[in-house]
C-alpha cells in the first residue's frame, strides 16, 4: 500500500493521506478500472467477472483501514523500540 509506505519515519496521518498527488491519481484510476471491469457487461464477458454485491463492497472498503492501522501501529512500536535509529 503506497500511502502507508510513503513516510517510513513518521505516521502517514501526520503527513496527510492525500499529500501525494501521483499516488492519489493511481488509486482513483485503479478503482475506476475495477468498477468498469466488474460492472460493464462487455468487460464482464472479456474478463469473466460478475458484479459485486453490497456486502462485498463494504468488506473491500474496510480492508485498507485495517492495513493502515496495522502499519501505523508497527511504525509506532518501531519508533519506541529504536528511538535513535531511522527506519
From TrEMBL:
InterPro entries, alphabetized: ATPase_P-typ_cation-transptr_C, ATPase_P-typ_TM_dom_sf
Gene3D superfamilies from the UniProt entry: Calcium-transporting ATPase, transmembrane domain (1.20.1110.10)
Domain of life of the source: Bacteria
All residue ranges annotated as the Cation-transporting P-type ATPase C-terminal domain in the record: 13-77
Protein name (record): Cation-transporting P-type ATPase C-terminal domain-containing protein
Native species: Bifidobacterium bifidum
Lineage: Bacteria, Bacillati, Actinomycetota, Actinomycetes, Bifidobacteriales
Amino acid at each position: 500500500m503506497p500511502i502507508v509506505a510513503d513516510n517510513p519515519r513518521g505516521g502517514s496521518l501526520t503527513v496527510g493521506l492525500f499529500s501525494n498527488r501521483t499516488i492519489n491519481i493511481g488509486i482513483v484510476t485503479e478503482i475506476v478500472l475495477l468498477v468498469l471491469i466488474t460492472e460493464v457487461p462487455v468487460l464482464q464477458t472479456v474478463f469473466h467477472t460478475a458484479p459485486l454485491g453490497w456486502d462485498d463492497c463494504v468488506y473491500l472498503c474496510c480492508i485498507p483501514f485495517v492495513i493502515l492501522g496495522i502499519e501505523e501501529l508497527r511504525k509506532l512500536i518501531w519508533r519506541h523500540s529504536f528511538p535513535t535509529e531511522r527506519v
